[in-house]
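Hi U.,

Before I forget, here's the chain from the pilot set. I'm dumping it here mostly so it's searchable later in email.
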Amino acid sequence: MVQFTFCLIQVEGLLEHEEVDPARLRALESEIERDGELREPVIVDGGSLVILDGHHRVSALKSLGCQLVPAYLVDYRDPRINVRPRRPDLPVTKEDVVRAGRLRQPYPPKTSRHEFDSPPAVRPVPLAALAALAAPAAGRRS
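Structure:
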């Protein structure tokens, strides 16, 4: 079974391997703001910090001013994690996903689909909690 390790990650540290669809992003921003919480953490490769699932959620949180993102870290090398192309014209592998994120050369929206042997648990996180946890870090000087 794939191990999902919950954590909060600084939004600036995450690497995107796909672009987002602006219309879908606006709708998701409204939903998150209305609900006052993020229902499902994003899924991130723990080794590279490339977002595997949740690009729209990360962008929505950024636009809502959140500095922290609820995430599940996974070991992307785990053979129980698979990636499938959603577009017949764009084949994609795990190596392609990590490369796109690290080089900051994202694919178009909805290019890949990640599959896990078991789904991660739903773990709602209130926006107010994210703001409260980020507030002390924002006030610190380096």
